[in-house]
Amino acid sequence: MRTLSVCVGSSCHLVGAYDVINEFKRLIVEHGLDDQIELKACFCLGECQSGVTIALDHKIYTSLTKEKVEDFFIKYILN
After folding, report:
1. Is the pTM of the predicted complex or chain greater than 0.85?
2. What number is the average pLDDT over the span 54-70?
3. Residue 79, in any domain of the structure
4. In whole angstroms, what is the distance from residue 33 CA to residue 53 CA?
5. What is the CATH number of the domain that holds 18?
6. Which residues, other chains included, contact 12 with Cβ-Cβ below 8 Å and sequence gap of 6+?
7. Short-list 25, 22, 16, 31, CA closest to 64
8. Cα–Cα distance between 52 and 63 in angstroms, integer?
């Protein structure tokens, strides 16, 4: 199972972390990957200055927005 963690600490929360989570949830369900991806909220991935930060299988990605989630999902999860 792959792990997708989205930071919901103060900085990320203020710039849309929950919108990012909801978009990932939508795409995971839409693509039938509920049993293959564990989506979870976490606190502080150490990139507070870089917008919403996520970790996919322990690799850090920064500056995510709701609008960027689908492209990220296609590039890093579906491919």
Report:
1. yes
2. 97
3. no
4. 21
5. 3.40.30.10
6. 6, 48, 51, 52, 53
7. 16
8. 5
